Amino acid sequence: MERMDRLFWLTYWLALALLLAVLAACGGGGGGGGDGAGQAGPLEGAWLGAAEDETGQLHAVRMTIAGAKVTSFAVDGGDLGGSGTISQDDPQVFSAVMTFPQGQLQVVMFTDPAGAHLVYLDNFFRFGVLQKNATALPQYSSIDINGLWRGISTFTDFHEYQSDPSSAICIVGTCSVTEADDRMTEAFTQGFDSVFGRWLGTTTINLNTGPAVNKISRVFVSPDKTFAGVWRCLVGATGDILFPSKCTYSAWVKHD
Prior knowledge:
about 260 residues; about 10% helix
């Protein structure tokens, strides 16, 4: 019996040593996945840009991402205390549920392929463009949206995402937009803000059959003026914007 006990414990310790060696080769026991801040994520860094709130008022926005987690969110210099883990839903689409002292937000971010710029959108219809490592908003000119832009256009209801390639040629504030199924003319000539880099406009969707569809639209340009974010939405009979069910969004990179 004593010999069998020694054999049992010898086998036990050999098996335990083998298990520990396997776990070490795999990077430990998987304890690093807690809050998403342990490993560098594709959006990690300090972000700065401009956004409008649900009333259309403009603000400077700063957001810090550590690993795959938003760790701070500031509007007009005031830290709102927001945080939330980011998930990647498509190659250029990220989402998060952000928690603030006042409650929660559903957030979607559409990025450029390099992950250096993003479009911010939340379920209260706050919308803007942020740039990684930007330090200040520049003085914008109305001609900053002119040129050739390429990227994606996306529909989302904050549960599902549908993205397609998109491009635009903008001349004197009027853009000819090509998407997978639509051809649009967007005239960003209804108002311009040189401090926050926002243009107000209208969108006319030229359908292959039937009458054209008219929407209202906005475009924001990043601090380095190489990235643009657009929203375009249908307006209901009562004058209300039909968000999010009748809205689409574009994330474009400038190509000179």
